[in-house]
Each structure stands twice: as structure tokens, then as C-alpha cells.
Target: ABC transporter ATP-binding protein
Amino acid sequence: MATITLNNIRKSYGKHVVLDNLSLKINHGECFTLLGPSGCGKSVLLRLIAGFETPDTGTIAIGDQVVTDSDKGQELPPNDRGLGVVFQEYAVWPHMTVFDNIGYPLKLQKLPANEIKDRVMEAVAQVNLTGMEQRLPSQLSGGQQQRVALARALIARPPLMLLDEPLNNLDANLREEMRFEIKELQRALDITILYVTHDQEIGLAISDRLAIMDEKGAIRQIGTPEDIFERPADDYIFRFMGVANFLPSLYQDGKVKIANQILSASSTPETTGDWMLGCRPSEIDLNRDGQGLQGLVKRASFLGATMDYLVDIGGVEVRVLQDTYEAIDGGKLFKENENCHVTFHNLHWFKPDAELLSNNNANMVGGHN
Ligand SMILES: Nc1ncnc2c1ncn2[C@@H]1O[C@H](COP(=O)(O)OP(=O)(O)OP(=O)(O)O)[C@@H](O)[C@H]1O
Model:
């Protein structure tokens, strides 16, 4: 079974502790993503699993086999771990054509030439490089080289693939296409994929489960894309997964107050006291019917299909995104300096810890990208 089990991993470089006390289990046949900001330790974790680096403490098992045991000083060499690996540097062999680069793992397995040819041509088509089989890497763009590396890793059909930002050099269309392709291949071949990225959209699109890491290399939440997006464990996750509004709120006597106005809310916090209301810009509505909190439109930007508003609610600024055509149809298009009322849907309540307060001077925090 192509599972990965990490137990109590610590990795430091000099005094810099990148990962500490990290444990994680990745199931057979799942596409699991490590998602976190740049520099949080995702690639280091992947290199430890691949066997290119040694942890200070902890064990790593692939299936039933312990491949790294730092207490016993045991390390299985990378080549014996049964992994397909694509790293950011997408090293392709410069002296070999695209065909030879991709077919190399099969040549090592000494497969017959006609089978190699069929499988290479299939892989070439999967990564959209048909017609370029005889080119050298120097005659390819960065994104094309990245696809060669991906095809070369996939062709050997390893039970477990480690992919470190394998799509980051591709343009938006191709990236979208390739992420579906990776997901399809993973399902069709029943392989396990551990995918590393700082891009939330890719993480949500391809994963069965994700682990969200913070700047300190700690895992904050593990869950399905829906869990992470709809039920964030804390304000860090909520902020990391997209543009977020945070509104200081007081819950008292069964009522929620924001900027001294009473909010009639579909959900309330668990206990009385100060809270932060987290809400996505697309989950806020503006109206002229007097429903919700009173506000003033400070900025109205037409972005084509969406309207992007900045609304002041008694000194608290919130970002609101509305579907332009729905707004036109419903007579709810607003201009700058117009009064409005604001309702909120899908509320998230967070305890206002020091980190949230310090990040929250503008009440609005953008998702990392
Ligand atoms: N060989 C090394 N020596 C010293 N420090 C290192 C080494 N490799 C990584 N680091 C440090 O470990 C931290 C984590 O690096 P890592 O490459 O895992 O980040 P990442 O989360 O993959 O980021 P990105 O998304 O930018 O690739 C960084 O602060 C980096 O500087």
C-alpha cells in the first residue's frame, strides 16, 4: 500500500528549526496537498520523504516499510523508495530529446522498444507536447520542460508521486488543464500523490485532503477542500484561503453588535464577549430595503462580471463582491458615496487573538498567493 506515515519529524538547519514534532498520515490512493506560504517548509518535508535529506528526529514509513529512522540512523536511498518525483527545478537531461527524456525510466526497466514508443507517445499527448518529441530541452520553454519532467515521472507509473509545484511555470490555461490531467491519472492508476503548493486554487481543485501549514512549519488543519474552505479551524486558515473581512463584534444578552449596531445574524458566537466576524466578500449583500447594518459605499469598481465595493460600516471597512448582472436585475447597483444596508451570509466567528488584531487594522486581509 502506498501510504506515507510521518512520525514526530524535526528538521533544522543550524539554529533555524524548519519543522518540529510533525506527524502526518497520507492514505493510499489519495491526492494529498501540503499548502502553505512560501518558505514554510513544504519542500523540505518532501525532500525528507524522498530521502534527499535526513531529519533530526522521527521516522518516515512508506507502506509498511520504515524508510527513515533517525534514532537508528537508518536511511533507504531515494532510488529504492519507489517514488516518482517532480521538483520545482524540473531537471531534465539537456543532451536527450523529449522522447528519450520521457522514455528513460522505461528503458531502465528494459521494456521492448515498441512498448516504450507507445507509452512515450501516450505520455507526450497527456502533457500536450505532441510534435516536439525530437526537440532538445534547450529548444523548449520553461513550462514545456516542466511538462517533460512530469511525463517522465508519470510514465513509470510509480505507486507514489511527490510533486513540488510542478505546474508553476505553466500559463493559466495549461495549468488548469494539467491539474485535471494529474487528478485523472491519479484516479485511473490508483496512485497516491503528495502535492506541494502555495496556490489555494490548485490545492482545492486537486486534493482529496489538504494540510494547511503556517509560517512556522506547523500544520494548522487537515481536511477535505470543503472542510478547509467552509469550516476553517481558525482565522489563519480563513485568511489564507482567500480575501477575508474581519469585523470586530460584541456578543452580549443574546445580541451581536457591530459598530454599535445590532446585527440580526443566522448564527451567533458560542459565548458572550468580544469576537471577530469573518465573512468573504462574495457572501455579503447590499440593499436599499433597510435590512442589516447601515453603511456607506466608499468605493465602487466595475470589474466586468463583478462589482467590487468598499463599504464603511461605522468606521469598519468591508470588501463586498457582487455579481454585476444580478445587481442590475435586482436594482442593486450602488454608486460611490451612496448609503446602503448590509447583510451577511455564512458567518464565521473567531476569537480575536493578538495575531488577528495586529493583522486587522484594515479589517480586511487578502489571501496569500
Ligand atoms: N539546505 C538548506 N539550508 C538552510 N536552510 C534551508 C535549506 N533548505 C531550506 N531551508 C530553509 O527552510 C525553510 C523552508 O524552505 P522550503 O523550501 O521547504 O519552503 P517552501 O515552503 O517549500 O517554500 P516555497 O513555496 O517558496 O517553495 C526556508 O526558510 C529555507 O530558507
About this structure: Residues 4-230 form a domain with the Rossmann fold fold (CATH 3.40.50.300). DSSP finds ten helices and 22 strands in the chain. Residues 242 and 367 are 4 Å apart (CA to CA). The mean pLDDT is 90.
